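Quick start: read one record
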Amino acid sequence: MENTDLFKTRSYSGCLRDAFGMMSNNFTTIFRHTWKPIFLSSLMTAISILFRLPDKNIHDLGNSHITAAAIILIVTTIVGLLAASWLLGELYSLLNDHGRKTNFKRGLALQIFSVLLTLLYLFEAFSDANAITYSIVTLLFLICLFPLGFAQTKFVADKTRTFHDIFMKDYAQGWRHFGYIFITALLAGIIITIIGCIVMLPLCVIIFGQSFNQLGMLDGDADGTPSYFLILLIATAFITFVLLNYLFVWNALVQYYMYGSIEATDREKEQRKKALLENEIEIKENN
């Protein structure tokens, strides 16, 4: 499934269109290579939701078994991180010839870096309770993410890139194309938000229903949830996050084509500069 037409100048919508075309034309192949990490990641996310559900019984159970609850949360987080790296490795193994092992290692490095970056953001944003400081830090953080996303995609797509290049050459290259990256990401984000809201609707209905049920129980009402509620919740969450993961796959392909377009644009500029320089040298020699 390697794309020989990757390095081609594309418009914003062209990246979205080609990503959709690749996914729809090769969905069977993509599903065969990605369903295991996606199912595992979705299951870990569904389990972790239980610990954040507004349910007194679950909270009481967790408080009475704090060590076990902490172990489960740590395990689900680590396994989810590995599953996301596995997914990225499997996806890019279909796009390049680096091999699953290399792609997995690079995907894992990016996942760990993303977690550390998020923790750093949270520390900086909430170290001061001032709302203005929080807003400024959040805005700067979001702005800096756009060229960083390009640099990370290039790190996985191009085997010659080092982790150091993410913060240096490739990050600088991303800043030079900030407008293109921003608009492409904005269009993809709008589509993902619309589809994501539709996909999340059944899970939100269940969670809101449970929340109102808990409020009613605090006022003395009987528990209105059925005996199979937890099974229904986990199954709904699992299916929801499987679908959301495939939205992530599409967005990864958008980033991939955006990277190819930027690389093609820069190569064309370099070729034009080289041609102009050669013409100038030739003119001077003739004179």
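The mean pLDDT is 86.
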